[in-house]
Specification:
three-stranded mixed β-sheet, 22% strand, three-stranded antiparallel β-sheet, 6 strands
């Protein structure tokens, strides 16, 4: 690893820790020439998943887009940004494990809805109304009635 201060290429690792649930390794290093200390992070580079949209188009799986959708469903609800980020990270991690290159968009929506249903019923119904494309009030009421029956 090249020292960011003097660009010397020899260093010594003085501390190694696992971060982000073991997905990343953090290493503290010291340059053997100038003794500057610096941190590096190491993680597995995963291939990017493509989402197969309902109309057959393919798009890159966009974490920001998924995060925005979940945030909108959770607006004005007692749900922290940390809980939202955890949901998104769990869904993406699960998708990367289960699929190599392509994932149907419907699969993403199902996984998010499973987690939102356990976390907050209002957020679940909001997300479901967009994901399932409710056309009228009756479809909305059916979703709410389904929640009442399960709960």
């Amino acid at each position: 690893m090249r020292c960011p201060k003097c660009t010397h290429q020899e260093d010594k690792v003085i501390d190694t820790r696992s971060v982000r649930n073991g997905d990343v390794v953090r290493r503290r290093r010291v340059c053997l020439r100038c003794e500057h200390r610096f941190t590096t992070y190491e993680e597995v580079v995963k291939g990017h998943l493509k989402v197969i949209k309902r109309d057959g188009r393919h798009e890159d799986l966009d974490k920001k887009k998924l995060l925005n959708g979940v945030e909108r469903a959770c607006e004005k609800r007692p749900i922290s940004i940390q809980q939202i980020e955890t949901i998104v990270d769990q869904v993406i991690s699960e998708l990367e494990t289960e699929h190599e290159r392509e994932v149907p968009g419907t699969e993403i929506g199902k996984k998010v809805m499973e987690r939102l249903e356990k976390l907050d019923e209002v957020a679940y119904v909001r997300f479901a109304s967009v994901y399932r494309r409710f056309r009228d009030v009756n479809q909305f009421l059916s979703a709410v009635e389904g929640l009442i029956e399960r709960g």
